[in-house]
Amino acid sequence: MWLPLLQACGQAPDKAYALMLKGLYNNTVPVVAPTDLYSILASEEKKPLLLDTRQLAEYKVSHLAGARFANYDTFEATQLKNLPKDHPIVVYCSVGYRSEQVGEKLRKAGFTNVQNLYGGIFGWVNQGYPVYDSEGKTTKVHAYSRAWGVWLKKGEKVYDK
């Protein structure tokens, strides 16, 4: 709904996306840019725990390599009771709204090194970074809904039937 309006006002899609995210985020969880996360995953020995906070159907279509499914609707920080409180954790969802809320739960539970992937999996894929399904690398991304799918510029959009 915002994209046509912002384009009509002369806003580029990237700026429109950033403006939309600014309106969604509460800024309660620090963000990590897709480029920075990619570098971290490629170089650091102590990898962050990646938590995909979308629905199972979304996760099954594709997710970041090594990401653990952590259903937004049912997630409780106690699910990570064996993880040290200072272990790096990166949460993500489609655009970062649901994952920010999961990140808030983690921070309230005492986890000190939690970040939200800026732009979510859409931002990740739009930057050209890979996603995977149970069979390996894929170009498919669950676009959540047709309204939210406008923000996914790369990859093959998948919707629930």
Would you give an account of this structure?
It comes from Pontibacter akesuensis. GO terms for molecular function: transferase activity. Keywords: Transferase. This protein has 161 residues and is an alpha/beta fold. The chain starts with a helix and ends with a strand. It contains seven helices and nine strands, in the order H-H-E-H-E-H-E-E-H-E-H-E-E-E-H-E. It is globular. Helix 4 links the parallel strand 2 and strand 3.
> What is the SS-derived class?
alpha/beta
In round numbers, the mean pLDDT is 91
* Low-pLDDT ranges: 1-12
By CATH reckoning, the class would read Alpha Beta
Largest sheet: 5 strands, parallel
Order of helices and strands: HHEHEHEEHEHEEEHE
User: Radius of gyration in whole Å, from Cα?
Assistant: 15 Å
Itemize the secondary structure elements and their pairings.
Layout: H1 2-8, H2 13-24, E1 31-32, H3 34-43, E2 49-52, H4 56-61, E3 68-69, E4 89-92, H5 97-108, E5 114-117, H6 120-126, E6 131-133, E7 136-138, E8 140-142, H7 146-149, E9 156-158
Helix pairs in contact: 1-2
GO molecular function: transferase activity
Domain Rhodanese: 44-133
Keywords: Transferase
What can be said about this structure in brief?
This protein has 161 residues and is α/β, with parallel strands linked by helices. It has one domain: Oxidized Rhodanese, domain 1, CATH 3.40.250. It has seven helices and nine strands, in the order H-H-E-H-E-H-E-E-H-E-H-E-E-E-H-E.
